[in-house]
């Protein structure tokens, strides 16, 4: 028997954090269904998804919030997300 390569396809839904606009943050809140906050201190805009008060998801502009089929949320950097997932049509 020879060695063969396999690919695992895992469907997810995701939203990219585009910055601090009320319409976009409303979309994010509807997607994550957890409290969110925006940190505007300093040079970087951070979105915090309060899944766990002691360890929120911290997402920077351009990065993704990914939800798997079980509903679990995770943060992914833009380059990591784009190398791992392709848009389904």
UniProtKB/TrEMBL annotation:
It comes from the Bacteria. This is Uncharacterized protein.
């Amino acid at each position: 028997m020879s060695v063969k390569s396999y690919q695992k396809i895992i469907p997810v839904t995701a939203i990219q954090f585009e910055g601090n606009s009320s319409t976009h943050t409303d979309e994010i809140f509807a997607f994550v269904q957890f409290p969110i906050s925006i940190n505007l201190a300093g040079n970087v805009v951070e979105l915090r998804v309060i899944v766990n008060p002691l360890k929120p998801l911290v997402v920077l502009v351009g990065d993704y919030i990914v939800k798997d089929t079980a509903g679990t949320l995770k943060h992914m950097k833009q380059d990591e997300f784009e190398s791992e997932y392709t848009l389904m049509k």
